[in-house]
Design a protein that fits this description.
The complex is a heterodimer of chains A (about 110) and B (about 120).
Chain A (H helix, E strand, L loop, with lengths): L2 E4 L3 E5 L4 E3 L1 E4 L5 E7 L6 E6 L5 E4 L2 E4 L9 E3 L8 E11 L2 E6 L3 E6 L1
Parallel strand pairs in A: 2-12
Antiparallel strand pairs in A: 1-4, 3-9, 5-6, 5-10, 7-8, 8-9, 10-11, 10-12
Chain B lengths: L2 E5 L2 E4 L5 E8 L5 E7 L5 E8 L5 E2 L10 E5 L2 E6 L8 E8 L9 E2 L3 E5 L1
Parallel strand pairs in B: 2-11
Antiparallel strand pairs in B: 1-3, 3-8, 4-5, 4-9, 5-6, 7-8, 9-10, 9-11
The chains are: A mainly beta (about 110), B mainly beta (about 120).
């Protein structure tokens, strides 16, 4: 079945550091790809999406480019802030046996130290 | 805009009792509703997908007998956790979308956090 792999379980950075969180996917179809952010005690918030090869999604300084060749959708930010500390989830949306469903990665906990 | 409200936000139930949670879609037609569970320190697992006027499809490891779902109209869905035990604690997330809109995404609520004591 479809799956999403996030390589990093936890990332610790200092403010103004460059962020990369790796996301690779496996899907039977041509999925849409998403990034969500979750703060403590809350549900996941939509960051952005991309639905075709080479499309770039972005929001709040975060960005990721859909790469069908490497089946990746890595999250990047040029300069992180302490307020970016949260758990980040990569997800795909795919039609499976007639139903459109999301599959989430395991999540990456980002800790930014001031 | 499209919004999804879930209530209660947090709830505590005694082991062996049941808990019902609700999901309300505002600003769009929720033809399809997905219920997820996030156990502590884990990711979001799909419990079931519900489409109005169609059978509810449960994922492996989740059953209607344990997680009965109701989806009676285009704005509302509910799910009950029957005979809740410690392993059922976590954040229950409802996502809804309008299948009639091309390329529509799921809009998620903030979740219902279930604590079992």
């Amino acid at each position: 079945g479809d799956s999403v792999t996030q390589t990093e379980g936890q990332v610790a950075l200092s403010e103004e550091d460059f962020l990369t969180i790796h996301c690779n996917y496996s899907a039977s179809g041509y999925p849409a790809l998403f990034w969500y952010v979750q703060y403590p005690g809350e549900g996941p918030q939509f960051l952005f999406r991309a639905s075709r090869d080479k499309e770039k999604g972005s929001s709040r300084g975060f960005e990721a480019t859909y790469d069908k060749g490497t089946t990746s959708f890595h999250l990047r930010k040029a300069s992180v802030q302490e307020s970016d500390s949260a758990v980040y989830y990569c997800a795909l949306g795919d039609q499976v046996t007639g139903n459109y469903k999301y599959v989430f990665g395991a999540g990456t906990r980002l800790k930014v130290i001031a | 805009g499209a919004l999804v409200y879930q209530y209660p936000r947090r709830t505590i139930c005694k082991s062996g009792t049941s808990m019902r949670m609700e999901c309300q879609a505002v600003g769009f037609q929720a033809t399809s509703v997905a219920w997820y569970r996030q156990s502590p320190q884990k990711t979001f697992e799909l419990i079931a997908l519900s489409t109005v006027n169609s059978a509810i499809k449960y994922e492996q490891n989740f059953t209607q007998e344990k997680f009965p779902i109701s989806h009676p109209n285009l704005s509302f869905s509910s799910m009950t956790v029957l005979n809740a035990y410690l392993e059922d604690r976590g954040l229950y997330l409802c996502g809804a979308r309008d299948e009639g809109q091309a390329n529509s995404d799921y809009t998620f609520g903030s979740g219902t956090r279930l604590l079992v004591i």
